[in-house]
Each structure stands twice: as C-alpha cells, then as structure tokens.
Amino acid sequence: MRTRAIGNLLILVATVALSYGMQVSKPHYADLTAPIPVGGAMHDMVRARSFGVRLDKVVFARALKTSQFGRTKLLTTSGLWAVVTTSLTATSASATVADGTWQGPAGLRYRQTERLGYRQDMPPHAVDPGLERRGLFVFEVPADQIGGATLLVAARQFAPLDAQARISLDASLGDDGQPAEVLPQYDLDAPPGKT
Amino acid sequence: MTAISTDGKPAADRQAEKKWRRRSLAALAILLPLTLAETSYDSVREWLHGEDLVARDVDFGRSAPFGGSDWRLADLRGGKAGRLPDRAFAVIATFSVTIGDPDLQRLWLGCKLMLTDATGRRWLPDFISGVSLPDGVMNCTSAIFSGAKKGDVITIGDTFIVPEDAIKTIRPAVGLGSERPWYLRFQRPPK
Hints:
The complex is a heterodimer. In chain A, 14% of the residues lie in helices and 44% in strands. By secondary structure, chain A is mainly beta. The radius of gyration of chain A is 23 Å and the shape is elongated. Chain B is of the alpha+beta class. Chain B is built from three helices and ten strands.
C-alpha cells in the first residue's frame, strides 16, 4: 500500500515537472508561423518558394532625386538612402514580390520606404517564370546599420510559413564604419548603370 | 493471489470494465482522425476552391461548358512587339464565349486567363507597353461587368509575356471561381 502511494506521488511530480517544462519551452505562435528563411550571398540567385532574387548592387546616397507627376522631387534624410538593385524571377507561376526589409547588424529591421509613391521599378514587383526583371528596394537607414546588414525579401509582408530570402550584404566600409562610397545624390530616373 | 480482489469488486465486473476500456481505446483510434478531418474540412474545401489544380483538356476548335457558358479558343498568337525583355515574346490569347447563365458576377468570380507550358509553368496576364488587345476584345474582369446577356457571343482575351524557351509548348487555360479546382486547358491551334 505504501509503495503504491509513493509511486503515485512520484508519477504526479514527474507529470507536473514535464507539463511545466513543456509550457515554458513552448515556442511563441509568431515563431511557429514565422517565414521560413532561405539564406544566400550577394550576386547569387536565391531561390525562395515562389520567386528567385539576386542582389546585384547597393548604392548609398544622402539624397534621392525622383520625378513624380512631372515634378522633380529631392528627398533628403537624416540617415542614408540605400538603393538596392535586384534581379527577380518567378519559380513556376507568375507571382508578385512585394516585401523588402533591411535588417541591421543587431537585428533592427527597417521596412522599405513609402515616401516614393508608385513607381514601375518599385514593389510590388510582378515576376514571370523564365524571365528576369530588374526591381528596386529603397530603404532609409541610419549609417551605423549598414555594416553586417541583411536584406530580407518576401512575397508579402505577412506571409506565415512562406519562404523569405535573406541575403547578407557585403558593403565596403570605411574606417569610421560608414559606407566607403556615399553619393551626394542618386537619380532614380537615370538609366541603369549611369549613376 | 489471483483470485483475491483488491477493491472488493466481483471478478465479472472487472472483466466488463476491462472490456470497455479496450473498446474506448479502439474508439479513440477512429474518433481522433475523424475529428481532425472534420476540423480541417473547411480549410481544405476553401483551398480546393481557390486553386486551379485539375485540367480539363479541350481540343482546338471545340467549345466546352465552363462557369455556365461555352468557351472556345479563338486565337493564340505571339511575336515581338512593344517593349519586351530580351529573349521574350508577347502573346495574345483570345477566347470566344457564348453566354449561357448571365450571372457572371457570381459564376466568373476570380476569373483567370493563363498560359501553361509543357513543364507546368504558368504565366498570368501582363501589361506590355505598346501592345493592346484587338478591337472588341475585353479582358475577363471587364467581361464580368459588361452586362452580357444569355446567347451573346463575346471575345475575351489578354496579353502575356513568355520566355523564348516556352513559346513552342504554351497552351492557354481558363480558371473560374465557381469551377475550381477544375480549369480548362486548350489545345493549340494547328500550325
């Protein structure tokens, strides 16, 4: 009788301990449904589920020049503009690539700018299988968030359990930890390769 | 030792209890999968109704009933036109549709014209600057709101950008909300 009582007590203690352990180690719902990362380096085609993305070039500038409704606008910033040029393609069916995020070295995330309004070369990018197209992602980031940064590209902003391309940027930095080359002004409407 | 009952119950009762415990365990094996199926039924149905999964092939020149109307591939032509990327072609696919049930806003919801190739890739319509649809041809969405009546014959079409390596095997296809997961896939016109 006594051994049975002790046995029952042991089972109870073990159950409580196990339940508590499971409770504290349970992943957050946001982590369970988080995007699935697909890593890659600059100049490599990174294959996510529905699209492929290759990071071709990153240009830093203190101001952006753009024309909107026939008027030239100069956008300034207290940080830096990062203009990321990518080549995009679809995997097996026409798709859109709409979300770009700049992730700094310590994990701070900067969403793509909304100050530019609608442009053909800005997200959402419509992509087709077998065809590559140039697509820009533009960010406004503090200068200390550039070394060791990662570009995150996904089909949509909230895409649980969908692939997210994560491309490590290797921008060349000067001695002060700032990008080696910062243009005073970048013209978004100049033909590619001319700025 | 075996004949002595610890809780004072007769042996027959214990036998019956044991039997019911076994039955309950067996019932779990059936009920758990059933519960799983019941709770996921709505999601599965929703998913099936949103995807073009099963092709229904239609010979060239023949028409097929789909979404309450009769669909026939009228024309499929490709070429270099407008502003296109390298090694890409512009393709225009047009369908001749005889309206049966005129409730297009319900039956044609989520209407999608597509091109598929031999490897299973799919292209959705694209805007090509410098290329427009021939006169009298409308895209699927405008057709839904065109007020077409029973018996009317309308021409529906769209423009696509397709890479060079797919152009030889592309086949036009149509998906409608009321017919998914089935979609119509048309045989190419003979050369």
